[in-house]
Design a protein that fits this description.
Helices cover 36% and strands 15% of the residues. The chain has 250 residues and is of the alpha/beta class. Strand 4, helix 3 and strand 5 form a beta-alpha-beta unit. The mean pLDDT is 92. Belongs to the thioesterase family.
Length: 250
C-alpha cells in the first residue's frame, strides 16, 4: 500500500492545510472557470477534522501557461491516477460543484473499477449524468461567455471588469464550459458509495428532477439537499454545506 509519506501532491493537487492525522480525506473539484483556491476556506474550516485536497486544473493561476483540458473523460483519466494514492490510507469523500460534480463522478467510477470505493460523493449544482441539455455557451464570443458567467454569479464582478484579468481567464473558462457542455454519460455500472445531491432552489442550471436523478447512479444511500439560492448557493450557505460534510465524515 502506498503511504502518505511517499505521496507528492504534484501539479494537480493543492493541500492548503495538511491534516495527516485526520480520520477522513475530502477531495474538492472546482466548477467551470474555478480553481483550487475556491476551496481554501473549506480546507481552513475543516482542518484538522479532515485532510482536504483541492484539484487545480491547468490553464489558470500557477498553471496558466499550461494547455487546458476541455474534456471531462480526459480529465478523469488523468485524475484517477493522481488521486489513487490518496485514496489508499483512509476513507475519502469527493465534493464537486457544477462541472466539478460530473468530473468527481467520473473519477469515482474509475476508482471503483479499480476496486476503490469512496466514503461518499457530494454532487453540487449539477444535473445527474443521465440527464442532458443542449448547451452551447462555449461556442459564443467572449461577450456571450462573460454574460453567462455574470448570470450565474460565479466570478467576482471586479474580475469581470478588468480586461487584462479577463484575457487571462477566458481561455480556461471556455475550455471548462466546453468540457461541461459536451459531457455525455456513456452508461455503465452504478457507484456503490453514498451519493448526496446538493442544489439551490433557484438554480437555472439544475431542476429538482435533474438533481434527484443522481439517485439513479448509486446502489448505495442517496440524499437530496436543497438550499436557498442560485447556482452558487454554496457561497451564502457555506456553513450549512460544511456542516453536512462534517456530519457525513463522522
Amino acid at each position: 500500500m502506498t503511504t502518505e509519506a511517499t505521496v507528492e501532491t504534484g501539479a494537480w493537487i493543492r493541500r492548503f492545510h495538511p491534516a495527516p492525522q485526520a480520520a477522513h480525506r475530502l477531495v474538492c473539484f472546482p466548477h467551470a472557470g474555478g480553481s483550487a483556491s475556491f476551496y481554501f476556506p473549506v480546507s481552513r474550516t475543516l482542518a484538522p477534522h479532515a485532510d482536504v485536497l483541492a484539484i487545480q486544473y491547468p490553464g489558470r493561476q500557477d498553471r496558466r501557461h499550461e494547455p487546458c483540458v476541455d474534456s471531462i473523460p480526459a480529465l478523469a483519466d488523468i485524475l484517477v491516477d493522481e488521486l489513487a494514492p490518496w485514496c489508499a490510507d483512509r476513507p475519502v469523500t469527493f465534493f464537486g460543484h457544477s462541472m466539478g460534480a460530473s468530473l468527481a463522478f467520473e473519477v469515482a467510477s474509475r476508482l471503483e473499477a479499480r476496486g476503490t470505493v469512496l466514503h461518499g460523493l457530494f454532487a453540487s449544482g449539477r444535473r445527474a449524468p443521465s440527464t442532458a441539455r443542449d448547451e452551447r455557451v462555449h461556442l459564443k464570443d467572449d461577450n456571450g461567455l462573460i454574460a453567462d458567467i455574470t448570470r450565474l454569479s460565479g466570478t467576482d464582478t471586479q474580475v469581470l471588469g478588468d480586461p487584462e484579468v479577463l484575457r487571462m481567464i477566458l481561455p480556461a473558462v471556455r475550455a471548462d464550459y466546453r468540457a461541461a457542455e459536451t459531457y455525455r454519460w456513456t452508461g455503465g455500472t452504478k457507484l456503490s458509495c453514498p451519493v448526496a445531491a446538493l442544489t439551490g432552489d433557484d438554480d437555472p442550471q439544475v431542476t429538482l428532477d435533474e438533481a434527484r436523478a443522481w439517485g439513479e447512479h448509486t446502489s448505495g444511500p442517496f440524499d437530496l439537499k436543497v438550499f436557498p439560492g442560485g447556482h452558487f448557493y454554496l457561497n451564502s450557505q457555506a456553513a450549512q454545506v460544511i456542516a453536512a460534510l462534517k456530519d457525513h465524515m463522522k
